[in-house]
Structures are given as structure tokens and as C-alpha cells.
Design brief:
The complex is a heterotrimer of chains A (292), B (334) and C (267). Chain A is mainly α and 292 residues long. Chain A has twelve helices and two strands, in the order ααααββαααααααα. Chain A has a single domain, classed as ABC transporter involved in vitamin B12 uptake, BtuC, CATH 1.10.3470. Chain A is globular. Chain B has 334 residues and is mainly α. In chain B, α8 crosses α9. The C terminus of chain C is likely disordered. In chain C, a hairpin with a 2-residue loop joins β1 and β2. Helices cover 36% and strands 21% of the residues of chain C. Classes of the chains: A mainly alpha (292), B mainly alpha (334), C alpha/beta (267). Chains A and B meet through α4, α9 and α11 of A and α6, α10, α12 and α14 of B.
Chain lengths: 292, 334, 267
């Protein structure tokens, strides 16, 4: 029983961070209909950038914040340079382009920082508190707090404001939206920038737990968008719920079944969602189900 | 003169068939003579990847279903081939089983895709690709885990063992030409036009009476069967397979081939797979740099060369046609 | 054609209780200002949007049918803005329209190239006939569609629909993007096709074109049908004029006219 609660607790803490990646992924999808497969690599990039800022002598909090902001900028540059020319083409083309970008980011990081794990200091202590036989680290609490606060802040920001409605409108019909004085190009840029910031934030929070490695990007991407699919692509609350659920399931599988198949569970969940309930837990049919 | 013209015009409908037969025979005889050693290995490998890329061309190039699982489907074919061959099933039958296995697994992605909007396909195929790698790497009793499995007996054709690259090359080359011929016929058939309509606009396809789900499924089956054949070929060529042959980077390399080909062109896909297989041999030693070049190549090709090799071919064809027309006009004037 | 049709998108009613009946052999106009739901009627008949109410096409109740089956019945339609990739040639577009004719199977292309070539010659002849019947240049076959003028693309889309040899043709804003001469040509060609037995239902906001070409028009306004009847009677009714007040671009096709979702549901 204690083991189960322990597993759930660390699952929830990591889940909040995965939720950030999923929310960024879902936000970009919701606005541009692009499935951004570079989301996890952006998160790792955030970790590496913070590491570099720290090495050049910036204090830890400044380095972390600068790392997050730089990731946002990187995402914006990617949108401007690589994706904008492709919006008029079939949707498969910009999505394939994000695959190219993911490969490009991973290999660039490997060339610059090498393929051995580096150490980025965590934002809070990892010395656990023991409560009733359960070990919880301050880092886990801080991860959960920061991730939850930013996710809720974003939800309120997107749900309640005109910008949120404009973003949604762009995906529905960019031309009609532009008639209402909203510039779709600006919305796309905004979605990628916010997506990048969320990825960077998730990166600096999760990297001390999973290790700073170029190849972790793909795993983060996979967890991120399985979470988004489970919650319902395009639904931001769904992405948060999905992130937490996926993380718990991965942790439970690692502990009770086999660590080899922890990621297998992620794919299994994705397959089940796609087979049984395409729109996910909180998504809607219009986003997912083919109509003709 | 007129009888010669009549003979030529009689052969025009079969020009593709002639290219297939003559090309396959000529290449199967001469390429193993021209190339040797490492270069012949590259020729064999280009044929194998070419077959898989032609399959992906049906799924992605013609139908615009973005699949990252083509290498994994090759893996399904390769494991099916080796595991059935090692249990004593005869040679041509094992290849058929390999195609069948990969086609069935691919059909699963096609079946799921009939219910969801097309951009979900990349997620479905990614899940499949990683699942195949996971099973291959972890299911020790069946697949040998990370160590892979060896092919116990190398098949023979006409009593000739295919163990050397020179003996294997004719089979690989003939198979590539056969798959090219099948894919090219598919492209101009009613089936191919329906796929083209789906990739142009699903609404346009629907009002033309195209049963979108059925055709999407059929495209994944055909593409999967080609991947299975490529997997079986790889197993014969290497006499050994392991999960490292079928990972995501191979899937991305195959996508790059189809992108470089452009516009769903089969001939372009064959040329692109020859070029990229040759280049990737040099890049393999550079690991990260090689990957970086792949990544940059995908992005740059998509943005700067949207029509790929097919676009270049189209341009040359137009130039030649204009040239011929000018020439005929001049001849007639004289 | 449709009975008590209701269509709504996320709580917004696009159509409420609209019933239209297109008599065989007629040219039937559906008219209304922007947002009146006229394209939605076509989308409901095509099976692109979910609707409640009955849809009957050529004697079949099709409201539960998938799109492709409905278009197998001898119905064809065009789009307000045909979405065509830049590499597609006129020949390929025409062959898409020809899908209903079950020729040039894959096995035949592979195993019987001569039979396939015979079928190709036959298709080329029919494509040529179709293009000619609309006054289009038959030398365009190898041209890429997107390199042509918008008015010609719209005409090619009609040709693509006619390749299916339909008995009922649905046209979605055919004059949008056409100039005066092209509109006059279209009206004349449609009447010729109609005289040869084709039933045509056309969604339009160009009243001059409709008045000239149609036998019957129905007027829609904010998702309801106001009235229907012969164009010269309907179009002078005060409530129809009322519905059009404030929507000034009724006489001529105006390229700056807001795209009404381009004839497709939001994607």
C-alpha cells in the first residue's frame, strides 16, 4: 500500500510536468492543426540552454528563466523560418517538417553538448521528507506547484480572453477569422512561442529527474502527445488530465510490471484511445472523428 | 517505314512493361559485373531501401498519409521471414508470408485511420513503430532481444545460394524493378487516381464517389506488403536481423527518400533511394552529423524544392518536348 | 430533395426546418445573403455535415449514407473554391471525376497493358467531349490546373463533375471568380445541358445570373426558407428584397466577397 501511494505521488509530480508538454502540444495543435513532434526536443533544449547559462556564470534562477525564455524564442524562430512557408501545403507536409526539426534539434544538441548525460541542478532540494513511510522530495512539490500554477494560468488566459477565442478561430477557418481583424499568422506565432515556453519550463523541471540527454527528447515528445491524445487533442484541460494519468500509469507499470515496457504502456494507451474513443477524455468529436 | 511505325505504336502501351523486363534483366546481369565489394553491397542495400520506399510512396507520396512506421513494417517482414524460415518453411513461401505479415500489421494502422482525421496517422504509426521496436528488443524467446536472430539457412535460387552479394544482387535488382512496375501501374490505374484525389482534397474525393476509408486501407496494405518484401530481402542479404535495423531513424530516412522524389513519383523514389543510400554509407561513420544533415535536408527540401526530383524531371521533360516540337516544325518547313 | 432539414454547429443553427424539392429536369436556384445557409444545404445533401430531417436523392433516402455512396447514385457537385494541389494536371482532375466508371483496374494496367491503353483512349475521347461541351480548350490536358485563371478553374470543376455523367448536378457558387463573359457562357452551357436532360441545383448569390438561368428559385434567410417559385415572381417580393437589404453585392460576382467557408465545413 505504501509502495502504491509512493508510486502515485511521484507519478503525480512528474505528471504535472508532462502535462505542460502536453498542453503546449495541444495548444499548437488547436491553433495550427500541426502535430509538433519537436515538442520534447524543445524541452530538452531548454535544459541544455539553462545548463550553458549556468556554466557562463549566471546564478541558477536567472539561468533557468533565461533557458525557458530562449526556448520560447527558438520555437518562434522555428515557426517563422521553417513552418510558415508550408501552411498552404497539405497538412502532412508541415507535420513532416516538425519531424525534420526534431531530428535537427537532437543532432545539434548532440554535437554541441555531447551524448553523455550532463547535470543541471534541480530548482529545489532532492533530499526527501518522510511522511508516514512515503518519501517526497521538495523538488517534486515544487515541480507540481510550478507546473500546476502555469497550466492553470494558461487555461484562464486562453479560455477567458479574446486571444484564446482568436486562436481557436484560426484552426476552424483562418480566412473567416482574418475578416474579424485577427491576423492568423500572429496567432500561429503566438501558439508556437507559448508552446516553446511551456516545453522549456517542463524541460528545466524534469531534466534533473530524467537526466540531460539529447535522446530524451523523443521520449518526452511521446509521453507529451500520448497525454494530449488521451485527454483529447485540442483540449487544454484534457492535456493536463492526460499528462497526470499517463505519468501515473508509467510509474505503476515500472514498479509493478517491468521497466522495459513502461513506454509500451504509453503506446498501448494511445492505441486504445484511438480505437475506442478517438476524441479522448475531454476532447470533442469535431477535432478527431472523420466526417466524410 | 509504315510497318515500322505500326510496330512501334503497337508497343507503346507496353512501354512500361518493356522497361521493367529489359531493365531488370540488363541491370541484374551488368550491375554485379560493374560493381564489386562495398559498392555492390550498396547496390543491394539501395534496392532493399528502394522497395521499402516505394511502399511508403504509396502511403505517403500518393495518399498523403504521413507514416513513420515503414522501417518497423520492414522489421515485421524481416522477423516473419527469419522465424518462419528457421522453422523449416521453404524459400518463396517465406517471402510471401513476410509480405502478408507486414501487410496485416500495416492494415491495422489503416483500419484505425479510417475513423480519425488524417493528421492522426503519424501518431498511429509512431505508436506502431515504437511498439515493434519494443517487442523486438524485449521479447527474448522469440526475437532474440537486442542480440537479434540469425537466418539459419540462406535460401537458394536454381541451386545457387544467395550467400554472396554477387549472387544476391540479381534477385534484389529484379525485385526492385518488379515493385517499381507494380507501383507505376498502380499510380496510373483507377486505384492510383483515387489515392491522388484523397491526397488532393478528401471532399473532392468524396464527391467523385471515392470510398475514402476503403482506399486508405488498401494503400496501407499495399505499402505494407512492399515493406515486408524489403524486410525479407534485408534478412537474406544480412543473414541476420536485430532491432537496430528497423528503428525510427530508418523510418525517417525512408520518408526523406519519398520527399526527395516528390509528387508521389515512383521513378523519383528509386533514384532518391539510390542517392540517399549511397550518401548514408558515408554519413553512418559521422552519426550526429549525418542525422543533422537528414534533419536539415527534410526541412530544406520541403520548403525550397516542393516538387523534388519529380519537379526536376517534369522540367526536363517539358524542355525536351519543346525541343522536339521545334525540331519537327523545322524539319517540316524544309 | 430535402425535408425539414436541421443543421447546427456547436449550438448555432445553420438551417432550421428547410424543405426544398428539386423537380427532375429543372434548373433550381437556391439564393440568399451571406450566412443564410445555402451552401450548408449542399453540404447536408453531400453528407459533409450531420443533419436531422430527410434527404432524398433520385428516389433514395440517403440521410444515413456516407458521402461517396450518395455520389454513386448519379449525383455530382462542384465547389465554391476548388482545392487543388499545385501539381495536379487537368487530365488527372478529369480522371478523378471519372472514378465512378469502373475502368483501368490495377490488375489490368499490370497484366493487360493493351486493354488498359484502349480504355485510356476511350477516356480521352470522353474528356475531350466534356471539355468541348463547356467550351473549354481540349489542349489543356497536360497543363497544371493551378496555373490557369480562376474562371477557367471553376469551369474545369464543372467539367470534372460532368465526367461522372450525372443526372443531378449540384453547383456551389459557380459564378464566383468568373468575369461577365464567363458567366454568360456558363448560363448558356448549363441551359444546353439541361435541355439534354440534366437536372441542376445551383447555389448562388448573383441574382442576375439566377434570374436568367433558373426555372425555380428558393430564397433562404438566416437558416429558413422564405419562399420559392418562378424567379420573376419571387425576386420582386418585398420580404425577399428586405432580406437582401444591406447586402449590396447582389448583381455581380464580386471577387472580394467573403468566402462562405469555401463550400466546406470548417476543417
Amino acid at each position: 500500500m505504501t509502495l502504491l501511494i509512493q508510486t502515485l505521488a511521484s507519478g503525480v509530480a512528474a505528471g504535472a510536468v508532462y502535462a505542460l508538454i502536453a498542453v503546449g502540444f495541444s495548444l499548437i495543435y488547436k491553433t495550427t492543426r500541426i502535430i509538433n513532434l519537436a515538442q520534447g526536443d524543445l524541452a530538452i533544449l531548454g535544459g541544455y540552454l539553462s545548463y550553458t547559462y549556468l556554466r557562463v556564470g549566471l546564478p541558477l534562477p536567472v539561468a533557468l528563466i533565461a533557458g525557458v525564455l530562449s526556448t520560447g524564442v527558438a520555437a518562434a524562430v522555428i515557426e517563422r523560418v521553417a513552418l510558415r512557408p508550408l501552411y498552404k501545403r497539405p497538412l502532412a507536409i508541415p507535420i513532416l517538417c516538425t519531424v525534420g526539426i526534431a531530428v535537427l534539434l537532437e543532432s545539434t544538441m548532440q554535437l554541441i553538448w555531447g551524448s553523455l548525460p550532463l547535470f543541471l541542478p534541480p530548482v529545489a532540494s532532492t533530499t526527501p521528507w518522510h511522511v508516514e513511510g512515503i518519501a517526497i522530495t521538495p523538488l517534486q512539490v515544487v515541480m507540481f506547484a510550478i507546473a500546476t500554477a502555469s497550466a492553470i494560468g494558461l487555461l484562464l488566459g486562453i479560455g477567458r480572453t479574446r486571444i484564446g477565442r482568436a486562436m481557436r478561430g484560426c484552426a476552424e477557418d483562418a480566412e473567416v477569422t482574418s475578416l474579424f481583424g485577427v491576423n492568423p499568422d500572429r496567432m500561429y506565432l503566438l501558439a508556437f512561442t507559448v508552446g516553446g515556453l511551456l516545453a522549456g519550463l517542463a524541460g528545466i523541471l524534469i531534466v534533473p529527474t530524467i537526466g540531460l540527454l539529447p535522446s530524451s527528447g523523443l521520449n518526452l515528445s511521446v509521453i507529451g502527445f500520448s497525454a494530449a491524445v488521451l485527454g483529447g487533442l485540442g483540449s487544454l484541460p484534457g492535456a493536463i488530465l492526460g499528462g497526470v494519468l499517463i505519468s501515473i500509469l508509467v510509474n505503476v507499470t515500472e514498479v509493478y510490471v517491468s521497466s522495459n515496457y513502461a513506454y509500451g504502456v504509453v503506446y498501448l494507451i494511445m492505441a486504445v484511445v484511438l480505437l475506442v474513443r478517438v476524441r479522448g477524455l475531454l476532447g470533442d468529436d469535431l477535432e478527431a472523428v472523420r466526417r466524410i | 517505314m509504315t510497318s515500322a511505325v505500326r510496330a512501334v505504336s503497337f508497343l507503346v502501351p507496353a512501354r512500361r512493361l518493356i522497361v521493367f523486363v529489359v531493365g531488370a534483366v540488363a541491370c541484374a546481369i551488368f550491375l554485379p559485373v560493374i560493381f564489386s565489394g562495398l559498392n555492390l553491397l550498396i547496390v543491394n542495400q539501395a534496392c532493399i531501401y528502394g522497395i521499402a520506399a516505394l511502399g511508403l510512396n504509396v502511403i505517403f507520396g500518393m495518399t498523403s498519409l504521413l507514416s513513420i512506421a515503414q522501417a518497423a513494417l520492414m522489421g515485421v517482414g524481416a522477423y516473419t521471414f527469419v522465424l518462419t524460415a528457421n522453422r523449416g518453411i521453404g524459400f518463396p513461401a517465406t517471402v510471401v508470408l513476410a509480405c502478408l505479415g507486414a501487410a496485416i500489421v500495416s492494415a491495422i494502422t489503416g483500419l484505425i485511420s479510417t475513423r480519425v482525421r488524417s493528421h492522426y496517422f503519424i501518431l498511429i504509426t509512431l505508436a506502431l513503430a515504437e511498439t515493434v521496436t519494443l517487442v523486438a528488443a524485449n521479447d527474448l524467446s522469440l526475437t532474440g532481444g537486442d542480440n537479434g536472430v540469425a537466418l539459419n539457412t540462406i535460401p537458394t535460387i536454381f541451386g545457387d545460394s544467395l550467400v554472396t552479394p554477387a549472387a544476391f544482387a540479381p534477385l534484389a535488382i529484379a525485385s526492385l524493378f518488379l515493385v517499381w512496375y507494380l507501383a507505376e501501374c498502380l499510380r496510373t490505374s483507377r486505384f492510383g487516381v483515387a489515392l491522388r484525389a484523397i491526397s488532393t482534397d478528401e471532399y473532392l474525393a468524396a464527391v467523385s464517389g471515392v470510398a475514402i476509408s476503403r482506399y486508405r486501407l488498401a494503400a496501407t496494405v499495399v505499402g505494407g506488403a512492399f515493406a515486408g518484401l524489403a524486410g525479407a530481402m534485408l534478412a537474406i542479404s544480412d543473414a541476420f536481423i536485430g532491432p537496430q535495423n528497423f528503428q525510427l531513424d530508418t523510418g525517417i530516412l525512408l520518408l526523406l527518400m519519398v520527399v526527395l522524389a516528390g509528387g508521389g513519383s515512383n521513378t523519383g523514389t528509386v533514384i532518391a533511394s539510390a542517392i540517399l543510400t549511397y550518401l548514408s554509407q558515408g554519413l553512418l561513420t559521422l552519426a550526429a552529423v549525418g542525422e543533422l544533415i537528414y534533419g536539415v535536408a527534410i526541412v530544406v527540401l520541403l520548403i525550397a524544392v516542393p516538387d523534388g526530383l519529380a519537379g526536376v524531371g517534369h522540367l526536363i521533360e517539358r524542355q525536351v518536348r519543346t525541343g522536339v516540337r521545334l525540331l519537327t516544325v523545322r524539319v517540316q518547313n524544309h | 430533395m430535402v425535408d425539414e432539414l436541421d443543421v447546427s454547429f456547436g449550438g448555432i443553427h445553420a438551417l432550421r426546418g428547410v424543405s426544398l424539392s428539386v423537380p427532375l429536369g429543372a434548373i433550381y436556384g437556391i439564393v440568399g445573403p451571406n450566412g443564410s445557409g445555402k451552401t450548408t444545404v449542399l453540404n447536408a445533401v453531400s453528407g459533409f455535415v450531420r443533419s436531422s430531417g430527410g434527404i432524398h436523392v433520385l428516389g433514395h433516402s440517403v440521410s444515413r449514407w456516407p458521402s461517396h455512396r450518395r455520389f454513386g447514385l448519379g449525383m455530382a457537385r462542384t465547389f465554391q473554391v476548388p482545392k487543388i494541389s499545385h501539381t495536379l494536371t487537368v487530365w488527372e482532375l478529369m480522371r478523378m471525376g471519372d472514378h465512378g466508371r469502373r475502368d483501368r483496374a490495377w490488375w489490368k494496367e499490370t497484366l493487360a497493358p493493351w486493354a488498359a491503353a484502349r480504355e485510356e483512349r476511350e477516356t480521352r475521347r470522353r474528356v475531350g467531349d466534356t471539355l468541348e461541351s463547356l467550351g473549354l480548350d481540349t489542349g489543356l490536358l497536360d497543363t497544371r490546373v493551378q496555373t490557369l485563371a480562376q474562371g477557367i478553374i471553376k469551369m474545369l470543376d464543372v467539367a470534372r463533375a460532368l465526367m461522372a455523367a450525372p443526372t443531378l448536378l449540384l453547383l456551389d457558387e459557380p459564378t464566383a471568380g468568373m468575369n461577365e463573359a464567363e458567366i454568360a457562357n456558363l448560363a448558356q452551357r448549363l441551359q444546353a445541358l439541361n435541355a439534354a436532360g440534366l437536372t441542376i441545383a445551383v447555389v448562388e448569390h448573383n441574382i442576375r445570373f439566377l434570374a436568367g438561368a433558373c426555372h425555380i428559385v428558393a430564397v433562404l434567410h438566416v437558416g429558413r426558407k422564405i419562399c420559392d417559385g418562378r424567379p420573376e415572381e419571387v425576386l420582386i417580393r418585398p420580404d425577399v428584397i428586405e432580406a437582401y437589404l444591406g447586402d449590396v453585392d447582389t448583381g455581380f460576382a464580386d471577387p472580394s466577397h467573403a468566402p462562405e467557408n469555401q463550400g466546406r465545413p470548417a476543417s
